[in-house]
From TrEMBL:
Bilayer topology: Single-pass type IV membrane protein
Name the record gives this protein: t-SNARE coiled-coil homology domain-containing protein
Residue ranges occupied by any T-SNARE coiled-coil homology domain in the UniProt entry: 57-119
Origin species: Metschnikowia pulcherrima
InterPro entries attached to this UniProt entry: BET1_SNARE, T_SNARE_dom
GO BP terms in the entry: protein transport
Parts of the chain that traverse the membrane: 125-146
Native organism taxonomy: Eukaryota, Fungi, Dikarya, Ascomycota, Saccharomycotina
Origin: domain of life: Eukaryota
Keywords: Golgi apparatus, Membrane, Protein transport, Transmembrane, Transmembrane helix, Transport
PROSITE patterns named among the record's database cross-references: T_SNARE
Subcellular location, record wording: Endomembrane system; Golgi apparatus membrane
Length: 147
């Protein structure tokens, strides 16, 4: 029982068993491959402290340049956002002013029309006649403007 599970002599037997079912090309590849592949995490050649410090300073300088450029871009975007907000507020105020002016103009036109109707009733002339008079006046002005 002890011989069956011992690690001392069974490793080479396992290799022999796997070689029984392999093709000849696989056997030659297995013989050519190295036993251990190099790890990317192996320690590389030792770099001097002076070289390492210079590299770190270079990286820090690049990092500072990137941070400066990013901060300038962020401040430009912030300024753009503030200016857009001011422009939007100004345009909203202008829109409100225009709406108020149109409302006042509508009220003025309505009052003028009502006074014209009252005046035409007092004068004994129908409002349709006044409308015809104004239409003739505007047609005459249009004719003068064209020719």
């Amino acid at each position: 029982m002890e011989l069956r599970y011992s690690t001392a002599g069974s490793a080479h037997q396992r290799d022999l068993r796997t070689q029984l079912f392999s093709t000849p090309s696989q056997r030659s590849l297995a013989a050519l491959t190295p036993q251990r592949m190099s790890s990317p995490y192996d320690n590389g050649p030792k770099v001097s402290a002076k070289h390492n410090e210079a590299f770190l300073l270079l990286l820090e300088d690049q990092n500072e340049n990137e941070v400066d450029s990013m901060s300038s871009k962020v401040s430009a975007l912030k300024n753009l956002g503030v200016r857009m907000g001011l422009e939007i507020n100004r345009l909203m105020q202008l829109n409100d002013d225009i709406s108020n002016n149109f409302e006042r103009g509508s009220v003025t036109l309505k009052n003028t029309y009502n006074r014209m109707v009252v005046m035409s009733k007092r004068a004994g002339i129908l409002w349709k006649m006044w409308l015809g008079f104004f239409a003739l006046f505007f047609l005459w002005c249009f004719y003068v403007w064209l020719f």
